[in-house]
Amino acid sequence: MQVQTLLNRLKEQPHFITIVAGPRQVGKTTLVRQALETSGNYFIAVDQPDTPGLRPNVAATEDVSEVDGAPRDAAWLIRAWQRARQHFRAFTLKNPEQPFAFVLDEIQKIPRWSNTVKGLWDADRAQGLAMHVILLGSSPLLMQKGLTESLTGRYELMRLSHWSYAEMHQAFDFTLDEYIYFGGYPGSASLIRDEHRWRNYVVASLVQPSIDTDILQMARVDKPALLKQLFELGASYSGQILALGKVKGQLQDAGNETTLAGYLGLLDSAGLLTGLHKYHVGAARRRASAPKFNVLNTALMSSATPYTFDQAKVDRSYWGRLVESTVGAHLCNTAAPQEDVSYWRESPYEVDFVISNAARLTAIEVKAGNLAGKLSGLSAFTKQHQACRPLLVGTGGVGLTEFLSYPLAHWLDLD
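and the corresponding structure tokens:
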């Protein structure tokens, strides 16, 4: 569906820069390459100095080393853009009805990239140059900073998230249990039969770069070790509610709760770990609530704990948290900006997830065992919020496979 969306935009006149952003290893580059298979394009991977541009239907007569061998700075970007314009003009002379796109992958690697892009894009508009521009980035923090600083009103965002169960099943024949444990990283799918190798890949190639590059190099973090500890703790406790005051006692040099809340926000922005707030009608009370940790890809939870796949399935308590974390990750990853994911608890009652928008409210209870059990939390919540729609997912309710096949909005709009 995302490929078709991009194809449709390429058929239009280029009114906006297309931004394709999302966590590491979710298929951003693959998506763009698929969409451009039949179009003219000039593709540069900013983080690969010796990789020439991909230019279907354009004669490769230029020496790309002038562009690709230089330091990645504003001057390099200007030269690359000028080369793209040359390719665009050559292509459109021969193919006047075909779109052409200039693509920069990992744009956030260029210092102050957004200011330079703004000037070049505005110059193209002034000259009536109908060259599409697509920018890709795996650092949500820096992408967001650049977009808000310089490119306001000049771009459309295509946000990619972690792969769903349906995508992993179709591409790699994942079973539901495999998806629950190994998560939705397509790059690690071939390694799941060797769990030690899989775990090392997730930690070394996904988690560490996301923290060391996408967070620590892009945002001010006074205590990097604390940030890493918070991620490890949160991933291990995914599916559980922990007050930040209690979390401090399990971390070294924890600082204050405001610092921890800020670091949790950074981990969320990087597509790693979120802290769901307690459902309240008032926003202030939501912010003050204890967070419920939820990984945004269950591979992050499984790789942070010592359980093997077989051991995880045997431990009913742990497997239940994995299933609940799968549901939470799916809700967070498919939520639109105007949709909210939270939890609810008023002792002794609890609801796993509460999803809402301006008009609708749904309370979700997840059951992973053989018996549905009591639904006292749902009953208590719906008594307080009579417009709420209760939803049981798992044993005795909507099957997990069915639930994971639809985005959050679908479970709000059911009557």
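(Above: one complete record from the training split.) The chain has two domains: 2-159, 165-413.
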